[in-house]
Design a protein that fits this description.
Helices cover about 30% and strands about 25% of the residues. It is built from ten helices and eleven strands. The radius of gyration is 16 Å and the shape is globular.
């Protein structure tokens, strides 16, 4: 069966306003991410947004759009809203590919689903942290019990400085049963403290499995991140 990849994309990012439409290498950020997603075999890809400007840009480069409400609080909620507009039963899982990861590889997107094959409700990616990331509040740290097959159980996630753990990449794969359960969850206590939606899953008893992967360069969260990406492409 196919995989359903949804890229949540909103204009009102607090750290980098209108982030999806920022350009480097002659393309917008949302197009960079979309191009990685459509290279995944046997997958349908949609951009879920509340912005007509983003929707129009996505349609210009050939992408498909699902329009969602502007008041949705997180990317997870936007993805869940988008699943109501497609026949989810046609797919074996849903992948939430956050729209700030232009340098993720298609093989890594696919690897995020491996924990689902090993019985976890939710899959994600982690990689070894550089020292600078350990002290960076924009770097999300994952506490994981890693096993010999490079898949581990996620125990918690934090933004605070941490000298151990893994860097968490902004991607989630959900089993279809997990999608239906998450739709019933309200925003949770520690999710609101940390501003990390994956804590909602843990606080409500879902299991998250992390697949160890290679370092992913260049998540775009801040003006500094964008500047580095533009320098990388000579623009």
């Amino acid at each position: 069966m196919k995989k359903l990849i949804i890229i949540p994309s909103r204009a009102q990012s607090t750290r980098l306003p209108n982030k999806p439409l920022k350009e480097f290498g002659g393309k917008t950020l949302v197009q960079h991410v979309w191009e990685k997603a459509i290279a995944v075999p046997s997958a349908d890809v949609y951009v879920a947004t509340d912005s007509d400007e983003i929707a129009n840009k996505v349609k210009e480069f050939g992408g498909e759009v699902l329009m969602t409400a502007s008041e949705l609080p997180t990317g997870t909620d936007r993805v869940l809203a988008a699943t109501a507009m497609v026949t989810v039963s046609n797919y074996d899982c849903v992948i939430n590919l956050q729209g700030d990861m232009p340098f993720i590889e298609p093989t890594q997107i696919l690897a995020s689903t491996l924990p689902l094959d090993r019985g976890y409700d939710v899959g994600t990616l982690v990689y070894e942290m550089h020292e600078a990331e350990q002290n960076n509040p924009n770097s999300v740290k994952a506490i994981v019990s890693m096993h010999s097959n490079n898949t581990g159980k996620c125990h918690w996630f934090v933004r605070a400085p941490l000298k151990y753990g893994y860097h968490h990449a902004g991607i989630y794969s959900y089993s279809l049963s997990a999608v239906e359960k998450i739709k019933l969850f309200a925003q949770s206590t520690y999710e609101n403290v940390e501003k990390l939606e994956q804590l909602r899953f843990l606080e409500n008893g879902l299991s998250i499995g992390a697949q160890l992967t290679n370092h992913i360069e260049g998540e775009i969260n801040t003006p500094s991140d964008l500047d580095q990406a533009q320098r990388r492409f000579g623009f």
